[in-house]
Design the sequence.
């Protein structure tokens, strides 16, 4: 649909690299996709929204927790396309960490973008309430298009594989050959797209997902499911042995920042003027920092970190970040 501003920049993180003593760290600025404060989900939405428009949908339906980056980007896309947006807002998955959690950050932006919010309880099933909301609107005579939780499905994964094409072209221009691409992983569609894309365009580069859900086995299983389906659709090779999900950096639970998350947020801000959020990119960066400190790579190696966006959530966590 062309809603995202692409390609996104690939920038050196020289001060963070020096602070950690190598390897050479780069950041792929998926937070700079533009619309509605940007983020990686806009790229995933590209093919999904094309399908929605082709199906003559008049309303987008999706959902997530109160501070979901995904539903904020769906709401922004709907506003830009002139479509109504209904969101199933899950309560109970994350205990509100601060008084401002329910009303600021992404929650404020959802209202600003004109989304209709439907409060629902969290049951552990990511898509049940979203699908139920779609069915209710369909029964009312609407033509809903259901966007899954996190925009994570085979179509979203195929769209996100384009990130690898950009990184490959930018790396050639910079004269680097990244040993790894590190990112946060949760609903699995982003990592699925990266794995499939790398199998075609960057086969020597390792894709490393840092689990942010405290459910690494479930995350890896979902990555494999979406990646296999996406690879089949574009007739690409897929080897599930290339799916690496690193555990131990999610903190006590999804949506709950811990000491390493807060350290990563502060380092990114103070050293690179890079705002990363406490739910996704902050935990992903914490995982990368831990891997660097564990000497996963030699100092003369290049490693790319994907900043998936989410800065609005910083305002919803202000009282717990000690900043």
Sequence:
């Amino acid at each position: 649909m062309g809603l995202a501003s692409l390609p996104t920049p690939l920038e050196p993180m020289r001060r963070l690299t020096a602070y950690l003593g190598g390897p050479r760290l780069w950041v792929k600025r998926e937070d700079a996709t533009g619309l509605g404060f940007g983020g990686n989900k806009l790229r995933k939405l590209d093919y999904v929204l094309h399908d929605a428009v082709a199906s003559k949908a008049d309303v987008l339906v999706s959902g997530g927790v109160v501070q979901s980056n995904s539903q904020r980007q769906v709401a922004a896309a709907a506003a830009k396309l002139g479509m109504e947006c209904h969101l199933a807002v899950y309560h109970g998955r994350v205990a509100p960490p601060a008084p401002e959690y329910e009303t600021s950050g992404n929650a404020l932006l959802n209202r600003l973008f004109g989304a209709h919010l439907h409060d629902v309880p969290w049951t552990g099933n990511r898509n049940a309430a979203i699908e139920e909301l779609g069915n209710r609107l369909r029964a009312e005579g609407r033509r809903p298009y259901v966007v899954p939780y996190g925009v994570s499905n085979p179509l979203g994964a195929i769209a996100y594989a384009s990130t690898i094409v950009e990184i490959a072209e930018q790396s050639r221009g910079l004269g680097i050959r990244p040993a790894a691409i590190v990112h946060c992983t949760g609903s699995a569609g982003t990592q699925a797209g990266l794995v499939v894309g790398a199998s075609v365009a960057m086969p020597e580069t390792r894709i490393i997902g840092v689990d942010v859900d405290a459910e690494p086995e479930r995350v890896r299983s979902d990555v494999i499911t979406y990646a296999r389906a996406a690879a089949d659709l574009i007739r690409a090779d897929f080897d599930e042995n290339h799916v690496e999900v690193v555990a131990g950096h999610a903190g006590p639970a999804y949506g709950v920042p811990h000491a390493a998350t807060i350290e990563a947020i502060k380092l990114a801000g103070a050293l690179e003027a890079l705002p990363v959020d406490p739910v996704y990119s902050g935990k992903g960066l914490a995982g990368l920092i831990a891997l660097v400190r564990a000497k996963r790579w030699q100092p003369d190696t290049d490693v790319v970190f994907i900043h998936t966006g989410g800065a609005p959530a910083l305002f919803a966590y202000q009282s717990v970040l000690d900043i």
Summary: The two ends are 38 Å apart (CA to CA). The chain has a mean pLDDT of 97. Strands lie at 10-12, 24-29, 59-65, 84-91, 116-121, 144-146, 180-185, 206-211, 244-246, 302-307. The chain has two domains: 10-36+154-321, 40-151.
